[in-house]
Design goal:
112 residues, mainly alpha, 7 helices
Length: 112
């Protein structure tokens, strides 16, 4: 168990908030590390320790939750939703969505 400094915790919380607001974009660990002045090890280990998942896993969860909201609450097509949450190929979006929710995005679209 690592004893995290308050300044590191604040940086990690800022990174989490940033990723939550910008999940449709892809950021490398190195980019985030440089932008928030935290070393790569602290970023990867700290994020997992504090939030229970890695940076990329968190981003994927945010994307999927956003996609589900868009499916349920908008008239956007699944293709438009895929692009809006950061997928360049709708088929990749469908695979990721099904892996996350256990159902296809189309099944949510028709039931809403």
């Amino acid at each position: 168990q690592y004893n995290w400094k308050a300044s590191d915790i604040q940086k990690l919380q800022k990174i989490k908030a940033f990723l939550g607001q910008n999940a449709e974009h892809f950021y490398t660990i190195e980019q985030l590390s440089k932008e928030y002045a935290i070393n790569v090890y602290k970023l990867k280990k700290g994020f997992k320790d504090l939030f229970g998942m890695g940076v990329f896993e968190y981003t994927a969860v945010v994307r999927m939750e956003t996609a589900l909201e868009l499916i349920k609450n908008t008239e956007l097509s699944l293709k438009e939703i895929a692009f809006q949450v950061g997928y360049s190929a709708p088929s990749s979006f469908t695979v990721a969505f099904k892996r996350h929710f256990g159902r296809s995005p189309r099944s949510f679209k028709s039931s809403s």
